[in-house]
Amino acid sequence: MDLVEKQLSSELVYQGGFLKVHKDEVALPDGAASTREYILHPGAVAVLALTPDGKLVLERQYRYPTGREFVEIPAGKIDPDEDPAATARRELLEETGYAAERWTYLGTAYPCIGYSNERISYYLAEGLSQQGSRLDEGEFLEVLAVPVAQAMEMTLSGEICDSKSIVGLHWLAAHQAGRMPGVAV
């Protein structure tokens, strides 16, 4: 069965600093027409950073759209013409002050497939050394380090409840169990 929808027209409804909102008319597989509203996103990275003593680096920060604080893994958007692995290195250093000796690409996930093309590339960072954080202007966060088992429990208790961190912790567990080898970068 062919499930592809064909774009008939596209309208840029809004263009912000890095997000674009589109409204498209599409032809459905049965020939009927429909409207699709969606957000174009430049992509992002998420980092599972392990300290030399095996703790996972987390961040606590306020997220304005939800009106609350979250505990999450380090992450950030990919700048134009930037390689995702370079973004991961930059974001980890800027947000947490850590640099890593070893990097492993774990995979890519799409967190909002119903309304966005956002993709998040996940990286494991090991062999960390503290270099001093360099937060972006207007960025405020607290860096935490907890045992991986505790971070996993935090997903079950709801203390960690953002999808990128839950996916990342799941993939980290699979990697550590030898079920998801990853690619050295």
From TrEMBL:
GO terms for cellular component: cytosol. Its cofactor is Mg(2+). One of its GO terms (molecular function) is hydrolase activity. It catalyses: GDP-alpha-D-mannose + H2O = alpha-D-mannose 1-phosphate + GMP + 2 H(+). Residues 39-168 form the Nudix hydrolase domain. Belongs to the Nudix hydrolase family. NudK subfamily. This is GDP-mannose pyrophosphatase. It comes from Chromobacterium rhizoryzae.
